[in-house]
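Sample pair:
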Amino acid sequence: MMDRDNRGSRPWHTNRRSAVTGMLLATSAVLACSGCVRRRLTVRTSPPGAVISVDNQLIGTSPAASSFTYYGTREIRIQKDGYRTETVKRTINPPWYQYPVLDFVTETLWPWEIRDERIIDVELVPETLEPAENVLMRADQLRTQSRAGVVTAPR
């Protein structure tokens, strides 16, 4: 004879199994529908068209964008013909919802997507070439000093 609960004709272990299955399905549905944090770094230059590298990874020509996973300091290298090559270090601090404990909620349980867009603007400086006469004069000075045994500090 089977043990039956007082609420119906089903055995007690069948009701418990249904409850556990229901909880697992509900948890799976919440996790499947949960959002996430999308992080994007955009580098814009004036004038546009410069080649952009972030942490020695080429991301394209400006304006260029790339997704990122971790916050911290990024090294951004910007190159364009006729302009001085720039290397910029920028620290990307996490927003309040990415601090420990809160990040678990926003990454796994929050039902909507959160976008964290960071934009870095860089003004390019035209490259100036030193006149050939100045370069030759400086070379002669260094040659004379080296013959005399004088050491000069680099500029």
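The radius of gyration is 31 Å.
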